[in-house]
C-alpha cells in the first residue's frame, strides 16, 4: 500500500433469504406483525410503577393485536398455492428497495401456521390420539413442510402434540386428572398475584382491561370456541403482565396453553357455557375496581376451576 493512500473498505453483500412463493407473505410489506400470537410476551426496560408495579414495556392490552387465524387452502382445482393464504399463481412482484430484514419471511409463515394449528387443536378438528404428518398439513395449508414442522415443534413444547418418529406428530391425549392438576397449579400462581395487584393498583388500571373482557364475551356469544380461547388467554396474560414479573408470565402462559387442549371424550362447550366463563372476566374486573378482595378470590377460584372440566 502506498504511504498516505487509504485502502477502500470491503463491500458487504446482503444475504437475502430464498423465497418459496411468487407472492409476498401477507403482512410483510404493511408493517403488520403476523408472527406474534399474543400481546405482552415480554417486558421492556424501566422501573415498574404503582406499589406492585406494571412494566411500561408491556403493550396496552386495549390495543394489542391478535392476528387473524390461517384459513385452509381454497384454491380451485389445478391452481398453484402461492402463499400462506392460498390462491392462484401470479406474475412475480419485484420487491421494493428496503432495509435488510431482521428475520426471514419464513418466520411470519410459521407464525400463521402455528395460529392455524392451535385453532384446529382447540376446535377439535385435529383429534386427540391421531397422527398428522407435516407434509400432509403443508398441502392442506398451502405452504412448505418446513414451517409446519417448526410450528409442530413449538406445540410439542406446549404439550399439545408428541413427536411420532418417522410418522409425524400425534395429538396429545389430555386426561381429566391432567386438567385438574393444571387448574390447581394455575390457582397457586395466579390468585396470590392477583390479590397483591388488587391492593396495589388503582381502579383506572383495571378499566383498561375492559376491551379484552368484551372480546371474550363477543367470541362466546358467537359460539367461537377458538376465538374465546384466544381472548381468555389474552385476558389472563394482561392481568399477570401488570406484575412486571417476566418469569411468572412465562410459566403462567405455558400452563394456560396446556389447559386449552381438549380432553378425550370431551364435548364442545355450549354457547351458554362460553358466555358464563366470559362473564366471569367482567365480574372479576368489577370486583377488582371495587377492592372487594374476598369476591376477587372467589371469582378467580371458580373461573380457574372451570378449566378442570373437559372441553
UniProtKB/TrEMBL annotation:
Residue ranges with Basic and acidic residues bias: 1-10, 26-36
Pfam families in the cross-refs: FCD, GntR
This protein's record includes keyword DNA-binding: yes
UniProt keyword terms in alphabetical order: DNA-binding, Transcription, Transcription regulation
Ranges for region Disordered: 1-64, 76-104
Gene Ontology molecular function, alphabetical: DNA binding; DNA-binding transcription factor activity
CDD domains: WHTH_GntR
Domain HTH gntR-type: 107-174
Low complexity: compositionally biased ranges: 89-100
PROSITE patterns cross-referenced by the UniProt entry: HTH_GNTR
UniProt cross-references to PANTHER family, sorted A to Z: GNTR FAMILY REGULATORY PROTEIN (PTHR43537:SF45), TRANSCRIPTIONAL REGULATOR, GNTR FAMILY (PTHR43537)
Protein name: GntR family transcriptional regulator
Amino acid at each position: 500500500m502506498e504511504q498516505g493512500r487509504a485502502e477502500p473498505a470491503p463491500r458487504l453483500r446482503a444475504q437475502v433469504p430464498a423465497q418459496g412463493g411468487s407472492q409476498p407473505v401477507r403482512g410483510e410489506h404493511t408493517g403488520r406483525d403476523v408472527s406474534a400470537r399474543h400481546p405482552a410476551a415480554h417486558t421492556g426496560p424501566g422501573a415498574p410503577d404503582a406499589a406492585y408495579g406494571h412494566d411500561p414495556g408491556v403493550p396496552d392490552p386495549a390495543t394489542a393485536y391478535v392476528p387473524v387465524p390461517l384459513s385452509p387452502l381454497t384454491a380451485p382445482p389445478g391452481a398453484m398455492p402461492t402463499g400462506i393464504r392460498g390462491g392462484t399463481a401470479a406474475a412475480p412482484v419485484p420487491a421494493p428497495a428496503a432495509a435488510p430484514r431482521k428475520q426471514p419471511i419464513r418466520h411470519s409463515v410459521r407464525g400463521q401456521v402455528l395460529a392455524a394449528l392451535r385453532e384446529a387443536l382447540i376446535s377439535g378438528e385435529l383429534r386427540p390420539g391421531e397422527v398428522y404428518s407435516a407434509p400432509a398439513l403443508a398441502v392442506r395449508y398451502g405452504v412448505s413442510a418446513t414451517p409446519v414442522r417448526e410450528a409442530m415443534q413449538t406445540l410439542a413444547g406446549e404439550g399439545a402434540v408428541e413427536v411420532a418418529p418417522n410418522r409425524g406428530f400425534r395429538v396429545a391425549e389430555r386426561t381429566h386428572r391432567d386438567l385438574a392438576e393444571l387448574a390447581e397449579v394455575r390457582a397457586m400462581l395466579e390468585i396470590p398475584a392477583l390479590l397483591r395487584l388488587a391492593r396495589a393498583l388503582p381502579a383506572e388500571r383495571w378499566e383498561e382491561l375492559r376491551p379484552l373482557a368484551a372480546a371474550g364475551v363477543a367470541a362466546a356469544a358467537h359460539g367461537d370456541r377458538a376465538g374465546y380461547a384466544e381472548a381468555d388467554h389474552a385476558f389472563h396474560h394482561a392481568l399477570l403482565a401488570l406484575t412486571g414479573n417476566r418469569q411468572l408470565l412465562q410459566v403462567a402462559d405455558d400452563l394456560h396453553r396446556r389447559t386449552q387442549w381438549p380432553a378425550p371424550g370431551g364435548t364442545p362447550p355450549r354457547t351458554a357455557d362460553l358466555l358464563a366463563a366470559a362473564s366471569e372476566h367482567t365480574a372479576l374486573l368489577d370486583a377488582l375496581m371495587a377492592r372487594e378482595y374476598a369476591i376477587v378470590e372467589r371469582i378467580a377460584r371458580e373461573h380457574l376451576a372451570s378449566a378442570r372440566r373437559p372441553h
